[in-house]
Design a protein that fits this description.
Helices cover 41% and strands 17% of the residues. The protein is an alpha/beta fold. α10 crosses α18, α11 packs parallel to α14 and α14 packs antiparallel against α19. InterPro entries: C-N_Hydrolase, C-N_Hydrolase_sf, Gln-dep_NAD_synthase, NAD/GMP_synthase, NAD_synthase, Rossmann-like_a/b/a_fold. Its EC number is 6.3.5.1.
């Protein structure tokens, strides 16, 4: 009969507008799928042009080059005798659609447009595409001439249809459609579709992977069937890291799991599954069978091809596996590290420079770079030729083989401790020891001369010399003096990033890394254009709480004993004068709130969509054991005052790895005004009324 079908899905590290590289990776995935016996190959969403093209989708060039890549795929012998399902933008009757183009043996079988577009958080698909709103409707699509010449087809089906092969029926979903409350797989399954496919462009968020896995498994748990998910992986040109996790599920259980974080540009999963297992699973679900008898049927595109072989009784099939999830600390260690590697190799720079203060945030950033070096050495050890070629180009040595993470770190990572008269010996020692343990090229310098020169110019012009508050100055003077130190560090960071390798007789420049965490950004506890201003920031979407846990993870897994004293030290900016040689300034005292409180405020503000009044109402219950309503009111008011006063800083925030759903990133994720009425008079009056009533 033919019952064992062999299907392939993949995770590809595509890059926006890198048509040549994207084509090469697609070909590699098809070759691997065919070599493992697959008869169907699924790729990620918009894989031909890359998912993150943004406003380039408006350009006719993007459409043209996508069809040119499709032409190469169609005419290649590599795509013969396997159904290929690729993603690209398509213009149909002057409307742009996010589509799957499914073809076999130089013939396009179906162009399936996306029905539910992702338009929340980091996604803006409605800006560039229109959802297909004609359910179970197919129209004629007139092919461009370059495609007609290859396929011999003038028109092909375009719309909401399924494929009927000789042995089964396949239906496509695209990313967001899996997350929608009325997912197409529900009615497709009732209409007899046995294999569901999903091409995704789904990015990493801490603790999110299980949600995607649960959705895939639940899709076939109620209705039976085989579910195949492909996903983009890597940094394709912006703040997001697409985290792979390609998977295949059957009847509610995972049968194949791809990696969430890896430096492999092409990862292919292949599974052989028994269609009779789907049919027997469905047979005893009477509620499903009753619903199926009333379903409105899908148009079926007949395909003269089978995913199985006639004589397949002895073919072994896959069995369910247990999905292994990473801990949040592992996710922080791996996700930003892979993102940094993609950014480094694709930007064609020679490494990173990090202002290393000896505190938790910059130390966590250093540990992520060290983790990246670990991943590079591991990938080379496992035979990844792409990573080896990139590493050789970055260090400018065609014979180099990265084997020791510390030695590789020395070549690509420069750390710099920028001392001032307000810096303690403790932080200097902690930074130096950590640099020694991870192997970075470490620089110690003192910024006092530059600070005095800048303040001296001000004094010459105005005849006034500002003083710190401990020396009798006002808070304005003290803050200005702190900001001068912070901004000079930024200027020096870029100077050393450009010329450090020059002084060492090495070519290239360094990318400057920032290290402000998500909570400090939310509160605005940073100097505009200080060391938080950098090229990229791997921890800008991670909370202080998670970073502390990550530091503990690195201490245990990388044996970085220097982190022990860093963890125990109170966070401090070290911008005010020392008292008896000891640090008197601490972050939490400066902010007027704890980092734990900040995380709660951030989640309520963004995820729970709470303004001042709603946040107060929620917190009087959450904190009823530790705070009076009046104390809660005071905390909420202080947070919103500080948040709104400092919101303008988000407009210049360094591009950061997106890891948290309460990120205040002003670029695309968290769109707010940056000029507020910071008195919040109406909102705070509502809070005061409730406090008095309580």
């Amino acid at each position: 009969m033919g019952r064992a079908v062999t299907v392939a899905t993949c995770a590809l590290n595509q890059w926006a507008l890198d048509f040549e590289g994207n084509l090469e990776r697609i070909f590699r995935s098809i070759d691997i799928a065919k070599s493992k016996g697959a008869r169907y190959r699924l790729g990620p969403e918009l894989e031909i042009c890359g998912y993150g093209c943004s406003d380039h989708y408006y350009e006719s060039d993007t459409l043209l080059h996508s069809f040119q890549v499709l032409e190469k795929l169609l005419e290649s012998p590599a795509t013969q005798d396997i159904i290929c399902d690729v993603g690209m933008p398509v213009l149909h009757r002057n409307v742009r659609y996010n589509c799957r183009v499914i073809f076999l043996n130089k013939k396009i079988l179906l162009i399936r447009p996306k029905i539910s577009l992702a338009n929340a958080g980091n996604y803006r698909e409605l800006r560039w595409f229109t959802p297909w709103s004609k359910a179970r409707h197919v129209e004629e699509y007139f092919l461009p001439r370059i495609i007609q010449e290859v396929t011999g087809q003038e028109t092909v089906p375009f719309g909401d249809a399924v494929l009927a092969t000789k042995d089964t029926c396949l239906g496509a979903e695209i990313c967001e459609e899996l997350w929608a409350p009325n997912s197409p797989h529900i009615e497709m399954g009732l209409d007899g579709v046995e294999i569901f496919t999903n091409s995704s462009g789904s990015h990493h968020v801490l603790r999110k992977a299980h949600a995607r896995v649960d959705l895939v498994n639940s899709a076939t748990a109620k209705n039976g069937g085989i579910y195949i998910l492909a996903n983009q992986k890597g940094c394709d040109g912006d703040r997001l890291y697409y985290d792979g996790c390609a998977m295949i599920s059957m009847n509610g259980e995972t049968v194949a799991q791809g990696s969430q974080f890896s430096l492999d540009d092409v990862e292919v999963l292949v599974a052989t599954l028994d269609l009779e297992d789907v049919r027997s699973y469905r047979a005893e679900i009477s509620s499903r069978n009753l619903a199926a008898s009333k379903v409105n049927p899908y148009p079926r595109i007949k395909v003269d091809f089978a995913l199985s072989c006639p004589d397949d009784v002895a073919v072994p099939t896959c069995i369910p596996i247990q999905w292994r999830h990473h801990s949040p600390e592992e996710e922080i260690s791996l996700g930003p590290a892979c993102w940094l590697w993609d950014y480094l190799r694709r930007s064609k720079q020679a490494g990173f420079l990090l202002p290393l203060s000896g505190g938790i945030d910059s130390s966590a950033t250093a540990c992520i770079v060290y983790s990246m070096c670990h991943q590079v050495c591991l990938a080379v050890k496992n035979g990844n030729a792409d990573v080896l070629a990139d590493a050789r180009r970055i260090v400018n040595d065609e014979t180099y083989i990265p084997e020791d993470p510390r030695e590789f770190c020395k070549r690509v990572f420069t750390t710099c401790y920028m001392a001032s008269e307000n810096s303690s010996q403790d932080t200097c020692n902690r930074a130096k020891l950590l640099a020694e343990q991870i192997g970075s090229y470490h620089i110690n310098l003192n910024i006092d001369a530059a600070v005095k020169a800048v303040v001296g110019i001000f004094s010459v012009v105005t005849g006034r010399t500002p003083r710190f508050s401990v020396y009798g100055g006002s808070s304005r003077e003290s803050l200005a003096l702190q900001n001068v130190q912070a901004r000079i560090r930024m200027v020096l960071a870029y100077l050393f990033a450009q010329l450090t390798l020059w002084t060492r007789g090495m070519p290239g420049g360094l990318l400057v890394l920032g290290s402000a965490n998500v909570d400090e950004s939310l509160r605005g506890y940073l100097t505009k254009y200080d060391c938080s201003s950098a090229d990229i920031n791997p921890i800008g979407g991670i909370s202080k709480t998670d970073l502390k846990n990550f530091i503990q993870y690195c201490l245990e897994n990388f044996q970085l004993t220097a982190l022990r004293s860093i963890m125990s030290a109170p966070p401090t900016a070290e911008l005010e004068p020392l008292v008896d040689g000891q640090v008197a300034q601490t972050d939490e005292a400066d902010m007027g709130m704890t980092y734990a409180e900040l995380s709660i405020y951030g989640k309520l503000r963004k995820i729970a969509k709470a303004g001042p009044y709603s946040m107060f109402c929620k917190l009087i219950n959450m904190w009823k054991e530790i705070c009076t309503p009046r104390e809660v009111a005071s905390k909420v008011k202080h947070f919103f005052r500080m948040y709104s006063v400092n919101r303008h800083k988000m407009t210049t925030l360094t591009p950061s790895y997106h890891a948290e759903n309460y990120s205040p990133d002003d670029n695309r994720f968290d769109l707010r005004p940056f000029l507020y009425n910071t008195s919040w008079s109406w909102q705070f009056r509502c809070i005061d009324k409730q406090v008095n009533a309580l």
